[in-house]
Amino acid sequence: YLGVAQVLQPVAEGTDVLSEGAFALDISDTSKGYTVAAYNGEMEKVNIQLTGPDGIVYKYFVTEEDGETVLPLTGGDGMYALEVYENIADDQYSALLNDTFEVSLESEFLPFLYPNQYVNFDENSKAVRLAGELAADAADDLDVVTKVFNYVTENITYDYDKAENVEYGYLPDIDETLETKTGICFDYAALMCAMLRCRGIPAKLDIGYTNDGMYHAWISTYLKNKGWVDNIIEFDGDTWQFMDPVSYTHLRAHETGRNL
Prior knowledge:
Shape: globular
Mean pLDDT: 90
Order of helices and strands: EEEEEEEEHHEHHEHEEEEH
């Protein structure tokens, strides 16, 4: 999978499904690092909580309008606990489904190569075409990451008004971000991750808060012959930053065999 430019397409095969009422979670292809959720009920939405073997609780919202929604299995191999809650009124939820399922990945990288609810793209996405153009003369994976970072940060402006008014549960639209050339940190991160994944570079997206309450986003990538490079791209609440010059120099030094 690594370094091969391709757009992986998730499918809902329907051979193994956990369901209750109007909700269904297709777990037929968990070995590829994803599940597919669907809700066709009368309530506004359902809240899905997946607790992975890493102990982290991953939360998602799915509505009837979403159709089939891809949810990643970023916790790796092991047992996942599923909890589903149906929104019955305002902020009130009722338990709908509680179950578990086992995951054994074909490759640890697959959850970070497939598109999903947060990093949503397909072969027709403008971001995919743009990534191909940027990577056309790239020397290696690190060069692709650098070119993607430079393009996005130089061409997309931060939307402060959107950031102040964004609603909980907001999901990025990467092609809309390219068209409007504006967005919040979540939009930047999702766009960069999509552009890297379609070039065969596994990319993790994380969004959260620092200890001092500052909104923060970061991207980690897997580079051939180097392994995972954590926080290669970071948003500090104000600007996007590529890895520090010292770390970048060491990566390049490793490539040429020099020991700095």
